[in-house]
Design brief:
The complex is a heterotrimer of chains A (about 200), B (about 400) and C (about 280). In chain A, about 80% of the residues lie in helices and about 0% in strands. With about 200 residues, chain A is an all-alpha fold. Classes of the chains: A mainly alpha (about 200), B alpha/beta (about 400), C alpha/beta (about 280). Chains in contact: A-B, A-C, B-C.
Chain lengths: ~200, ~400, ~280
């Protein structure tokens, strides 16, 4: 019974979603299910916030490892919520100030780390160890030059060759991965809808 | 039950009804021919309207679409731009006849209305633009179920070695030897993403190993629903291997929905806790390399997997093992070695072969079709059945 | 004993980080600028498609990103808004990412103020709703039930720009500026394929390769990829404009050029070291 009910719910919900895709008359049932998901997901935001507070207060109370970082998290969390609720979120309000002056630069900082990590990963990974790796290396050089103005300054055709690499060899590879992955998605969905895959419910058989 | 769908195709075709189309011409109006037609492939309640305008007439300021239901007074539906040529009116009562006209307005004065057009909205039972896809889905499903049946009957199904999955046990074992935790990152998407679902399935298997070996398992999540599901899965896995006491709920926690906020949080966990093994399985975007490079810098053995084509190169460059695309979805079957699941993998491969044949056939016929008409017809047929509306 | 050249292959990554930082900072500090060549490609296709829209059309602009990807995507938003508003095309914007609302508002207000356009008459920001793909499907049949109010709480029935908009099919084009999911794939699959609406997009450079299949099949009419796409668009929007507004992507391209050269230099050094090491090991056999 512990497994039967979730399996039945999965089966019914899965079949409804398949049916509503092909049968327009049943679309409203599918839309209702999707609305339910949105409602559940919205409630889950509270669940996440509660968990965040629980984990960090627990860490502070029991002086867990690196507990000194936890007050920072809680203060930041509270500051955003309180200023948003008290003053509103319109431009010029404290919430907006914190968003544009703190959140924006912090987010951009994290994203810009990519530049450094791309450099170190490329340095380590791009080795002309065989002819295929050499081909990859040459393609990478052409694309890197083609994506910046200096490439066109070196030779006017570099951006065009770069675009060709992106539009044909790259696209072929991307499609192959996408089609393979899509087949995996279909098979995984069928396994779950028909109860063949149950490990996510904690029961392997 | 899935195979009831093809029956619907025939039923849909058999009982296909037209919602009625009427149109007239009014040469005196700015809008010259108005056509009303039941909206195709909808759940009812919709009427498609199309019209042409007088080519030589001056543009009005705006146009108002008006509707009348079975002889009632005309009521405005919406304002149209003079350049518009189509509109779908929705939320109508099925089975009722609706008449339409368009009234042009210039300098606050109504011009001569267009001729009337009427139609009856009807609920459709089959989406004619998706019949090809329905047939393909049925074929794929049949193939997959055939091989699942073969698996159940005990037929030996070969599955090639996937290095990344073979290394799962070694990675957990290494973490145990070093006395460090195992970090599992289920991607940044929610539970409505199939890659996250696949990741949760693998998490169950990994959790069994960590429970067996007694290694701490950390699962920071980017979505609250994923956190709740992960907690349940890990709890069940620990219970199943008889170690419910080792389960720690707070080690599976929510960080933030923000993409790079999450990346920063997970990087912090990596640097402070120095996990010996890191699993990154699920949907990843630009944060993939930030996570993988930080993981590498703390000396962890890293197993990554995603179906996001643009992130695979980053994982290959920075991780020890990478599951590419479909390998992520094969992981559960591979790790469990259950015949039914292995059968579904074989079915998946057979379905892929079917697609490869269709693609090759499509390319050949489209190419030949340039010079030979029958080949062009075959190409067109293949294009039709593989297109989705 | 390994030589200096071989040691180069194991250079400390912190040295790479410092050199990269300098390669980005110095060109920005000395305001190095390089001309942006405009070739046929996804950026040009995007510009041409928007340019072909008649005045009075309505475009849906979706801000599906957050502050972290702002350096790449915000210049695209500004350049697109400039082109659309200059051509008297109405903009209805929304966000599938919560933080996209503020970023969208910032870009649209900035351009609207500089061109003397009016909120609610020429553009509107509907705000954020959760749901991603599900939300798009629901908007396919009725936008006003999904977004009964704009981001500031004003009823959409009182907003002139929404007068003629009831469902997705009423838009002449949808443009998604996307940093991940939900974003371009959701718009292509749920709106473009289902309702036959032209889809354009802008994305981060790391995600751009994954959208080329959509360009190949015609499911997308154009794509702005990363800072390069933004700089291309800024350049195209400026052509023929008397007093072109300053963009942030174009100056960034000089820094990106130098950064790419530095990465290539490191890759070359790594390979010299690798080949030297291989040769020495081969000789020792």
């Amino acid at each position: 019974m512990r497994l039967a009910i979730p399996l039945m719910i999965t089966f019914v919900a899965g079949m409804i979603m398949i049916f509503q895709f092909f049968v327009p008359a049943t679309q409203s049932i599918g839309e209702t299910l999707q609305e339910w998901y949105m409602i559940v997901a919205s409630f889950a935001i509270f669940l996440g916030s509660v968990n965040l507070l629980y984990v960090h207060t627990h860490r502070i109370r029991f002086k867990g490892r690196n507990w000194k970082y936890s007050p920072v998290t809680i203060i930041g969390f509270a500051a955003m919520i309180i200023t948003g609720l008290v003053f509103g979120i319109e431009p010029g309000k404290p919430f907006d100030y914190m968003f544009t002056q703190m959140m924006v630069p912090m987010g951009a900082t994290m994203f810009s780390l990519l530049a450094f990590f791309v450099a170190s990963a490329a340095f380590r990974a791009f080795r002309a160890s065989n002819w295929r790796a050499t081909l990859l290396l040459i393609s990478a050089f052409v694309v890197m030059l083609g994506r910046v103005p200096i490439g066109a300054m070196i030779w006017g055709k570099i951006p065009l060759i770069s675009e060709w690499i992106m539009q044909y060899p790259n696209m072929a590879g991307q499609r192959a991965v996408m089609i393979g992955a899509a087949m995996g998605m279909v098979a995984t969905s069928l396994r779950m809808i028909f109860g063949i895959e149950r490990s996510y419910l904690g029961g392997a058989d | 039950m899935l195979f009831v769908l093809p029956l619907l195709v025939f039923a849909g075709v058999l009982f296909a009804q037209s919602g009625g189309v009427t149109s007239e011409e009014n040469s005196g109006s700015f809008v010259q021919s108005l056509t009303a037609e039941d909206a195709r492939n909808d759940a009812g309640g919709g009427i498609d309207l199309t019209w042409t305008v007088a080519a030589d007439a001056a543009l009005p300021d705006s146009m108002v679409l008006e509707r009348s239901c079975e002889g009632e007074d005309w009521a405005p539906v919406c304002t149209l731009a003079p350049i518009d040529s189509r509109k779908t009116d929705g939320e109508l009562e099925n089975g009722q006849e609706y008449s339409y006209r368009i009234v042009p307005w210039t300098d606050g004065t109504a011009g001569q209305p267009s001729a009337l057009a009427a139609a009856v909205p009807i609920k459709q039972w089959i989406n004619s633009g998706r019949i090809g896809m329905l047939i393909i889905l049925t074929i794929i499903s049949l193939v997959i179920f055939y091989y699942i049946e073969q698996g159940k009957r005990g037929k030996d199904l070969y599955i090639r070695r996937i290095a990344g999955l073979t290394a799962v046990e070694d990675a957990v074992g290494r973490a145990t030897e070093m006395g460090r935790p195992v970090l599992y990152i289920p991607g940044i998407m929610d539970m409505d993403d199939i890659q996250t679902i696949a990741s949760m399935v693998i998490l169950g298997r990994v959790a069994m190993k960590t429970a067996e070996y007694g290694s701490p398992l950390l699962v920071p999540t980017c979505r609250s629903v994923v956190m709740s599901v992960a907690q349940e899965i890990v709890k069940e896995s620990y219970l199943q291997v008889g170690r419910p006491d080792a389960y720690q709920r707070e080690s599976i926690n929510y960080i933030t929905d923000d993409q790079f906020g999450y990346a920063a949080g997970v990087d912090g966990i990596m640097v402070r806790q120095k996990p010996a093994a890191i699993f990154m399985l699920g949907t990843f975007y630009a944060e993939s390399l930030i996570l993988a490079e930080t993981g590498r810098s703390v000396g962890a053995i890293q197993i990554a997997g995603t179906a996001m084509p643009s992130q695979i190169p980053f994982f290959i460059a920075a991780c020890d093992y990478t599951l590419i695309g479909e390998e992520l979805f094969a992981a559960s079957a591979y790790l469990s070695k259950e015949p039914k699941l292995l059968g579904s993998l074989r079915g998946q491969d057979a379905a892929k072969l079917f697609f490869m044949v269709v693609i090759v056939l499509g390319v050949l016929t489209a190419t030949l079709g340039e010079a030979w008409a029958p080949a062009a017809k075959v190409a067109e047929f293949l294009k039709t059945i593989t297109s989705v509306e | 004993m390994s030589t200096f050249i071989e040691k180069l292959g194991n250079i400390d990554r912190r040295i790479i980080f410092i050199v990269m930082a300098l390669a980005v900072i110095i060109p920005l500090a000395v305001r190095l600028t390089l001309p942006i060549p405009i070739d046929e490609g996804p950026s040009k296709n995007m510009y041409d498609a928007v340019d072909a829209l008649p005045p009075g059309s309505t475009v849906l602009l979706s801000f599906d990103y957050d502050p972290s990807t702002m350096p790449e995507l915000q210049p695209m938003a500004i350049a697109l808004a400039q082109q659309l508003m200059t051509k008297d095309i109405k903009i209805v914007s929304l966000a599938l990412w919560p933080m996209g609302v503020s970023l969208g508002n910032e870009a649209l207000s900035y351009v609207s103020d500089s061109l003397g356009r009016e909120e609610y008459v020429d553009w509107v920001n509907l705000g954020y709703k959760t749901g991603g793909g599900v939300l798009i499907v629901r908007m396919g049949s009725d936008i006003k039930s999904v977004f009964p109010e704009d981001y500031s709480g004003k009823s959409v029935d009182e907003i002139p720009v929404m007068d003629e908009i009831n469902m997705l099919g009423d838009f002449d084009m949808i443009i998604s500026l996307s940093a991940g999911d939900p974003g371009i794939p959701a718009w292509v699959m749920m709106a473009g394929d289902r309702y036959d609406i032209p889809i354009g997009g802008g994305c981060t450079a790391v995600s751009a390769p994954q959208f080329y299949p959509y360009l190949g099949t015609g499911q997308m009419l154009g794509l702005l990829g990363g800072l390069k796409g933004a700089a291309d668009y800024e350049t195209m929007v400026r052509i023929g404009v008397d007093d072109p507004p300053a963009g942030t992507a174009t100056p960034g391209m000089a820094a990106q050029s130098v950064a790419h050269l530095v990465i290539m230099l490191f890759i070359i050094l790594g390979n010299i070291s690798y080949l030297a090491s291989k040769k020495r090991k081969g000789g020792a056999k």
